[in-house]
Specification:
single chain, about 290 residues, alpha/beta, Rossmann fold, about 15% strand
Length: about 290
């Protein structure tokens, strides 16, 4: 089982393909398998990495009392350092997009490009968003302790559909299948991950520091508060392109993987690696790894 020591945890990851490096960061309460379709499709031209964020999947939990986006970004930095990955494209979705923003704002010269999907900035743009991101999300912890996060999330999905309209959750069956196939998250880890999301608004983040080419993707039926962050990302990121994923909800890479992956490929070819040769091993990808 391939792992890399990132700070105080052994981080599980998978690597496929050859070429310039892409590093995928999954959303909350999922794992690296969220990116399987993209890794399979892009592996002919790129070296793809997907890892399980602290508290998730095969990486599992840790003794830390609290998690934060800053800690997750430090873990990402340690992961890239441990594997010798230089100037990758970082691809993050939802919480993974929050982690990617923090990392790239801190280390703008260490990346070649950035993909932010179905994600949001630290700023709370309305009172309704404050209620949703802070109060309601934090309030899920106690029911999860009693009932488990699968049942609580189904109730939250139902409520979101009633409040924001059908389609906001996309094909939720895709998420359920990933959850059923992967390791179960411990309740204490769920609480720490949720708190990291809830406190993201406390993060000091300068989007203007992220100068690398950036692709912002969002689902057509995205929750309203996510949609409100799209123009903010477009306005404040110096080199951003925005694209809607038709018919998709909050997990747009799962709802329409063909469109999502095609948008990524076009972005890489046009803005990030315009002169890269397909199928060749980039000199700056990684150091050699035994058995991987």
């Amino acid at each position: 089982m391939p792992t890399a020591l990132t700070n105080d945890v052994e981080t599980y990851y998978e690597r496929r393909g050859s070429g310039p490096p892409l590093v995928f960061v999954h959303g909350a309460i999922l794992d690296h398998t969220q990116w399987t379709a993209q890794m399979d499709a892009l592996g002919d031209d790129y070296t793809t990495f997907a890892y399980d964020v602290r508290g998730h999947g095969r990486t599992g939990g840790s003794d830390r009392e609290r998690y934060s986006m800053e800690l997750f970004a430090d873990d990402l930095d340690a992961f890239l350092t441990a594997l010798g990955i230089e100037r990758p494209v970082i691809c993050g979705l939802s919480m993974g997009g929050c982690i990617a923003q923090v990392y790239t704002a801190r280390h703008p010269d260490r990346i070649a490009g950035l993909v932010l999907a179905d994600t949001f900035t630290p700023e709370l743009l309305s009172r309704g968003e404050w209620l949703q991101r802070s109060v309601m999300l934090q309030a899920t912890v106690l029911p999860v302790r009693l009932l488990g996060y699968e049942r609580v999330e189904k109730a939250m999905v139902w409520l979101q559909e009633r409040l924001s309209g059908e389609g906001v959750s996309g094909d939720y069956g895709n998420v359920e299948r990933l959850r059923e196939a992967g390791p179960k998250m411990e309740t204490e880890e769920f609480a720490k991950v949720i708190r990291a999301v809830v406190t993201f608004h406390e993060t000091d983040l300068d989007l203007s520091a992220i100068t690398a080419p950036t692709l912002v993707l969002y689902g057509e039926h995205e929750p309203p508060f996510i949609r409100r962050h799209v123009p903010k990302l477009h306005a404040e990121l110096p080199n951003a392109t925005v694209q809607e994923v038709p018919g998709a909800g909050h997990a747009s890479n799962l709802d329409d993987p063909e469109f999502f992956t095609g948008a990524m490929r076009e972005f890489f070819t046009r803005a990030v690696f315009p002169s890269a040769e397909s199928g060749g091993e980039s000199e700056s990808v990684t150091r050699s790894e035994d058995g991987n």
